[in-house]
Amino acid sequence: MGQWYMLTLVGKDKPGIVARVSKALYEGGCNLGEASMFRLGGNFTIMLMATSSKSAAEVDALLAPVCAELDLRRHVDPIEGKLHNHVEPNVSVTLFGADRAGIVAKATGALAAAGLNILHLESDVGGTEAEPIYIMQIEGVAYQGIEALRAALAEMAREGITIHVAPIDTLIG
Amino acid sequence: MAIQPILHYPDPRLAEVCAPVERFDDELRSFIADLEETMRAGPGGVGIAAPQVGRLIRVSVVDVSSKPDVKHHGRVVLVNPEILEWDGFAVGREGCMSVPDYTGNVIRAERIRLTAQDETGAAHEYAMEGYEARAVQHEIDHLDGLLFLDRLVSRRNDLFRRKVYQEPKAPKKD
Known about the structure:
heterodimer; A: 173 residues; alpha+beta; Alpha-Beta Plaits; four-stranded antiparallel beta sheet; 4 helices; 9 strands; 29% helix; globular; B: 174 residues; Peptide Deformylase; five-stranded antiparallel beta sheet; three-stranded antiparallel beta sheet; 8 strands; 30% strand
């Protein structure tokens, strides 16, 4: 086991990106860890943990040909791996409404002040170009309880944003 | 009484369909006591199934009474359990002593009716809902060689909020 790296790759979406990138890494002797890969708008985005005995510059060079071919931009950053230490979320927050500037800043600011540590956040813009809607789904740890989060978002709810805060009570069987 | 070692995925025994219990003897009762002790030793464990300790028989113990605000039947021993009816569905987060450091969302029936024998062989019928019903479905899956990993659904489709859906209102009369 060598050094862990966080690889960040972004480019215009097209079929085959994941297969080509992971093949280049596999053939270059890298092992992959956790990853999240999404299409955001018309772009494909990859955040990928990989471990290798190679230097950051050598891992970067491994990716250069496939990135050139697929027109992807990339970063390779050394990180600590820290696998097998998942933190369990205890709350799910879903928030949606007519899209307008500042929703994310306002919501996440209020939630952070009320003790939420975000573990996972995904957001989408749906609706139409004329009437966009914003949908955000968060999972996290509520260190000051769930009621604190509900109270923190009450003002946004009064402004017409729909907010659902629900406990996640993980069943271990 | 002894805590048994827990098998971890990908141990192939976790994928086996378990055999019905036919003999209700002291050996079975002693095994069930061990199984329960093993469940209680696991952090947060609310259920356990015999194949998780390598015994491929249709036996499980469930006890969700430690959870606040949950309807339950206390400690329930399920031998040869059979679900008779399913009703409703809900997404919930599950983990498993046999799958360390990973949890995921799984759809389960909200209410079930089941029959099972206890450690003496006596038959019981239970109506369960919510968290307890989820625990029983998770354990019965083990008896059929299934893990919650076999039933994962996407995090992206958040169905938690369905819990707060209102019943549709009756149309107004003119």
